[in-house]
């Protein structure tokens, strides 16, 4: 285990539903990240939080809304998603952002299916 | 254009053989990292090589970096069935990791 947990592990939702993904890290890190992994595509960085502040939004549609109440928890709120949003959503953490000698620790991901 | 492109996209070998995966990138890097992902799971960091390093070892892993060719390779020696996974290189700029599409390695028992 990497010290990063994600719930739920699997989620099926309709396009009109509202759901949230949760990520928690037990590593004492200060930076957290959301990535999207679609089939046959590289991992796409979605959001970066550093010391609870959002520092990057990689042109993510507003139907994805992140929330970082503290350095240990990160949420991704989902509403009115599209079928093409079906993917594996990965959370990661690192001691701090914008320090490139550090590695990121990934959670197991949430497999999302939008019907 | 995509950075951190791995080659080959898929590799199938027998247990005990060595596996070599290559990665090319297009811009100057501060460091390059390799990650492993078991099917449907999160990524696990394997090794980081800095831009001023040419080779690095970790157990059965050997990573090389050629900044003049903007390429890196990951060698797994004496492969095991448990090494079956996808392997990604990621170039690092600040905290941003830019991943390639990965190499799917299958090690047959």
The best one-word shape of chain A is globular
What is the first-to-last residue Cα distance of chain B?
37 Å
Overall average pLDDT of chain A:
92
- Largest sheet, strands/sense/barrel of chain A: 7 strands, mixed
Number of helices of chain A: 0
Assembly type of the chains comes to: heterodimer
Any low-confidence stretches of chain A, pLDDT <50, length ≥5?
none
Number of strands of chain B: 11
Give the SSE string of chain B: EEEEEEEEEEE
Question: What's the count of strands of chain A?
Answer: 11
Q: Percent of residues of chain B in helical segments?
A: under 10%
Biggest interface goes to: A-B, 32 and 26 residues
Q: What would you call the structural class of chain A?
A: mainly beta
Low-confidence stretches of chain B: none
How much is the average pLDDT of chain B? 89
Beta percentage of chain A is over 45%
Helix-strand pattern of chain A, N to C?
EEEEEEEEEEE
Structure classification of chain B: mainly beta
Biggest β-sheet of chain B, characterized?
Answer: 6 strands, mixed
Backbone CA Rg of chain A: 13 Å
Summarize the structure.
The complex is a heterodimer of chains A (115) and B (109). With 115 residues, chain A is mostly beta strands. Chain A has strands spanning 4-7, 10-13, 18-25, 31-37, 44-50, 53-57, 64-70, 73-79, 87-94, 105-106, 110-114.
């Amino acid at each position: 285990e990497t010290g990063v947990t994600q719930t739920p592990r699997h989620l099926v939702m309709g396009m009109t539903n509202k759901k949230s993904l949760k990520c928690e890290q037990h590593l004492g890190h200060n930076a957290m990240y959301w990535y999207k992994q679609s089939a046959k595509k590289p991992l796409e960085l979605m959001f970066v939080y550093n010391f609870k502040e959002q520092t990057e939004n990689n042109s993510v549609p507003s139907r994805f809304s992140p929330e970082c109440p503290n350095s240990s928890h990160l949420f991704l709120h989902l509403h009115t998603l599209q079928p093409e949003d079906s993917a594996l959503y990965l959370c990661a953490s690192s001691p701090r952002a914008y320090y490139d000698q550090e590695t990121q620790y990934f959670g197991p991901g949430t497999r999302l299916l939008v019907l | 254009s995509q950075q951190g492109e791995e080659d080959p996209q898929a590799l199938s070998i027998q247990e005990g053989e060595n596996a070599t995966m290559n990665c090319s990138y297009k811009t100057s890097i501060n460091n390059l990292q390799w990650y492993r992902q078991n099917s449907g799971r999160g990524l696990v960091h394997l090794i980081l090589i800095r831009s001023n390093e040419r080779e690095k070892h970790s157990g059965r892993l050997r990573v090389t970096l050629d900044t003049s060719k903007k390429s890196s390779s990951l060698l797994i020696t004496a492969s095991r069935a448990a090494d079956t996974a996808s392997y990604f290189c990621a170039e690092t700029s600040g905290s941003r990791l830019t991943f390639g599409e990965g190499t799917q390695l299958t090690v047959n028992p």
